[in-house]
Amino acid sequence: xxxxxxxxxxxxxxxxxxxxxxxxxxxxxxxxxxxxxxxxxxxxxxxxxxxxxxxxxxxxxxxxxxxxxxxxxxxxxxxxxxxxxxxxxxxxxxxxxxxxxxxxxxxxxxxxxxxxxxxxxxxxxxxxxxxxxxxxxxxxxxxxxxxxxxxxxxxxxxxxxxxxxxxxxxxxxxxxxxxxxxxxxxxxxxxxxxxxxxxxxxxxxxxxxxxxxxxxxxxxxxxxxxxxxxxxxxxxxxxxxxxxxxxxxxxxxxxxxxxxxxxxxxxxxxxxxxxxxxxxxxxxxxxxxxxxxxxxxxxxxxxxxxxxxxxxxxxxxxxxxxxxxxxxxxxxxxxxxxxxxxxxxxxxxxxxxxxxxxxxxxxxxxxxxxxxxxxxxxxxxxxxxxxxxxxxxxxxxxxxxxxxxxxxxxxxxxxxxxxxxxxxxxxxxxxxxxxxxxxxxxxxxxxxxxxxxxxxxxxxxxxxxxxxxxxxxxxxxxxxxxxxxxxxxxxxxxxxxxxxxxxxxxxxxxxxxxxxxxxxxxxxxxxxxxxxxxxxxxxxxxxxxxxxxxxxxxxxxxxxxxxxxxxxxxxxxxxxxxxxxxxxxxxxxxxxxxxxxxxxxxxxxxxxxxxxxxxxxxxxxxxxxxxxxxxxxxxxxxxxxxxxxxxxxxxxxxxxxxxxxxxxxxxxxxxxxxxxxxxxxxxxxxxxxxxxxxxxxxxxxxxxxxxxxxxxxxxxxxxxxxxxxxxxxxxxxxxxxxxxxxxxxxxxxxx
Length: 751
Hints:
Blueprint: H1 3-11, H2 14-20, E1 42-44, H3 73-79, H4 82-98, E2 103-105, H5 128-143, E3 148-154, E4 167-169, H6 172-179, H7 181-190, E5 194-197, E6 201-202, E7 205-206, H8 211-221, E8 227-230, H9 238-244, H10 258-266, H11 272-292, H12 301-315, E9 317-321, E10 334-337, H13 362-365, E11 372-375, H14 387-397, E12 402-408, H15 427-437, E13 443-448, E14 463-466, H16 474-483, E15 515-517, H17 526-532, E16 549-556, E17 560-562, E18 567-575, E19 581-592, E20 604-613, E21 618-625, E22 632-634, E23 639-641, E24 645-654, E25 657-667, H18 690-702, H19 712-728, H20 735-750
């Protein structure tokens, strides 16, 4: 820690220390004039800078300055391109610098457990590896500009219903592999300036008071060096929060809880060292922001608007392109249908909502030919059926070459603060798509939505383009993709199921209970659908291109490896077409261990790279895999462990389609040796032998709760049982070895 910070903390009174641990208002940290400690400002994100207008009143928190709306988090994950995501972070970092914002409250790294979460557009993926890598790229981009980020919402914050009070009940393996893993990757690869703790409880403990997660895991285990800030209004007990490692409470509480903390310190209920640690981290954040601020910086809205268009085009996912209905040719007569063509849905609702001053509509961007007509057909804001409006659209559809229908979710359907009730589009949209498909076989549906929707008409249309929430450049970006001037290269960061009921969390998501059981365990998203061999509408990682790609030689640099070694994987990718394009090479790992006792998913994403290929070009793509690609979290060990055996390294088009693979044998460097607590009777006496491993569960079941060595009948029964165990293990150890271990265990228990 900086000696400057230490000296300042020593000069602070107890009252001043406590006051620094909460904000002065909705967006600012506290100032201490006596010691010239400045105040700094934070602002919402992640789709752009949502800074409160300086001229707005203290309660006008939604009165923000005009800024650029970038594609939503779900779009950035769809790019499967960390370089692109970093460029978004850099642009937003420039805006924060120019507007004197110390940190942007982004990115969101929570897992899309259910398609219904109202805030899914603000999160990256159902997959923790993709989420973590995307979040790290965003953070590194922003922070390269001398501006902080706030990785959120830590952790297991996967619904909006009762978000202030529900308790996420999750087993340890699931917590580690699914709900913590993305945060772990982001923390280790980017060191965000701050991490924001969530509203909810995890396994009965409020996140703002959760020392195990905020201190033991986040700081001590992962090495997080920054500040922990509360979500706005997430603090319940400020004293417990400080003891747990929650540094900064936001927004400011007006000092009403300060006296409780002061009294707790004076009464020795709270160690002043814990308070000092929080103050030190707050001051480190404040002075880092001040030292990195560049006075007089400016930013170019026009340039950023053009950047948004380019980024949006990289993120769109071509889901279906039957009979090569896309791209639309300049000679085609085209009908555009849908209120979204005029009034696009381009961003999510809630704290991420950006005040944009320049939004492209599709009608502005439809420049691929002059043979375009438009019928509204349905509104972009509601589900009201207008018979005359729909009739005109159907009639016009029968007289054109192709119909492009702009469908999506009205803004009221998904937002921060509440969850969706279903996965369906407004019924008026589904009905009109079906009616138009009945009179014209060449229908393309363009979707504008923040999370998956059911598509009962999917088999009746030739083309589907998922644009998600593409930011303020949506119109031009969509037009360029439809016309072929941009070649779609996005991939789905989530599974689109056939129906909501197929989702693994269906029976345990939200509901009326304040206790949410994550009973699906590690089987989230594609991990579940693959294991169940269940048909889905479109799998995780799916996405088409106007180019045609094939794969050539695949190599691995070893057939056998220890888990502390790394493995290099290479594969050749070829563009077989005349059209330049980008392919996303997806690398998955599948455990091929026939007699495994571990609950296993079929395969997991462990690498991805987007590569540009000119017409008929070939390139070699390489990956490096380490222990994390093969390990599962072993609850008995309280650590990551690689089960010895064979693993398939698979190059896939998506989570369901394997193109080619190689098999490697992975061996753990250290044998599996359970770690027992200080109170365990097994501590320090369990040798690494088969007899010892057999003895532990045997002792627990047969001896641990009985006085077998003082009761002759039980002793005889025990002796017989031990002989039976020895015999059934075919001489791998002797009766004397087994008996000795049991005696030692029992002796330890008596002591």
